[in-house]
Design brief:
It is built from six helices and 15 strands. The longest helix is centred in the N-terminal third of the chain and has 15 residues. The protein is globular, with a radius of gyration of 17 Å.
C-alpha cells in the first residue's frame, strides 16, 4: 500500500488504528542511504532527514506530532504525555501513550519494530526489538507500561514489522548457547547453518515474547529487511558490503 509515493505496510490486527511500517521508498535521500532515510545517526543531510520524516508522518497521520526516542538497545520504555523536541529525546527503546495526536515512532535497520494497541482502553505502544533489547525484555516492559495506562493484555493486539529474517541472520555458537541457556525452548528458533553457526529467527523470538503475555493476537508481517534492498535499509547488509553508512526506516502508530 502506498501514500504520497511512500510505501506503507499495514497489519490486519491494527485495522482502525493509524499506523504503518515504512520502508525506504518514497524519500528524498541519495547515495548509500537513498530513499526515506529518517535516521539522525546515518550521517545524512539533516534537511533531507527532516523532509523524509515529514513525508512519513503525512503517510500515516498528517495532523499528529511525531515522537521518537534515542534508541540504545535497552529494555527501557517511556510513557509519553506530551511531545518533545528531537534534541530532548530520552534514551529508551519503547514508547506508550494514551494521548491522541501523538505519533509514536521507532527506527530500525534489521531490528524488529513492534506496534501494539488496546483499542478499547485507547492505549498504544511501539518498541524497537533487536536481539539485545528483546532478550532483555523490551516488549515485556512495553506491555507492562500499557497496562499501567489501563490496557489489558487479553485485549492488546500486536504486529512485528519488517526485520532481518532467519535465512539472513547468521549467529555464532556463543549466541546460540546464550539464547538456549535462557530458555531451552529457544532451540527451535536456531537452525543449524555453516560449521559453528546458526540462523536465528528474530521475528519468531519477538513474537513468542509477546504471545507469552496472552495478547489477543500477534501478527508477523514476514518482511526481510536484509534480502529486499529496494524496499528496506539493512545494517547487516551495509556492513557486509563495507558501506560507510546505512539508512533507517520508521514504524509509526497513533491514536486518532
Amino acid at each position: 500500500m502506498t501514500s504520497e509515493s511512500v510505501d506503507v505496510a499495514r497489519a490486519a490486527v491494527l485495522e482502525g488504528i493509524a499506523h504503518g511500517f515504512l520502508g525506504r521508498k518514497g524519500g528524498v535521500s541519495t547515495g548509500d542511504v537513498a530513499g526515506l532515510n529518517v535516521g539522525h545517526g546515518s550521517g545524512d543531510d539533516p534537511a533531507l532527514i527532516a523532509e523524509n520524516r515529514r513525508l512519513a508522518v503525512a503517510a500515516v497521520q498528517p495532523d499528529a506530532r511525531l515522537v521518537t526516542v534515542y534508541q540504545v538497545h535497552s529494555p527501557d520504555c517511556v510513557v509519553v504525555t506530551e511531545p518533545w523536541d528531537d534534541d530532548a529525546r530520552p534514551q529508551a527503546d519503547a514508547l506508550v501513550t494514551d494521548r491522541p495526536g501523538l505519533l509514536l515512532g521507532i527506527l530500525t535497520a534489521d531490528c524488529a519494530p513492534v506496534l501494539l494497541a488496546d483499542c478499547e482502553a485507547g492505549v498504544i505502544g511501539a518498541a524497537h526489538a533487536g536481539w539485545k533489547g528483546a532478550v532483555a525484555g523490551v516488549t515485556d516492559r512495553t506491555i507492562e507500561a500499557m497496562i499501567s495506562l489501563g490496557a489489558k493484555a487479553a485485549r492488546i493486539v500486536g504486529a512485528v514489522g519488517p526485520c532481518i529474517a532467519q535465512p539472513s541472520y547468521e549467529v555464532d555458537t556463543a549466541f546460540h548457547d546464550r539464547l538456549v541457556a535462557l530458555d531451552a525452548a529457544n532451540m527451535d528458533l536456531l537452525e543449524p547453518g555453516k560449521s559453528g553457526h546458526y540462523q536465528f529467527d528474530l521475528e519468531g523470538y519477538v513474537s513468542r515474547r509477546l504471545e507469552a503475555h496472552g495478547l489477543a493476537k500477534v501478527e508477523r508481517l514476514g518482511l526481510d529487511t536484509y534480502a529486499h534492498e529496494d524496499c528496506f535499509f539493512s545494517y547487516r547488509r551495509a556492513t557486509h558490503r563495507d558501506e560507510p553508512s546505512y539508512g533507517r526506516q520508521i514504524s509509526l502508530i497513533a491514536l486518532r
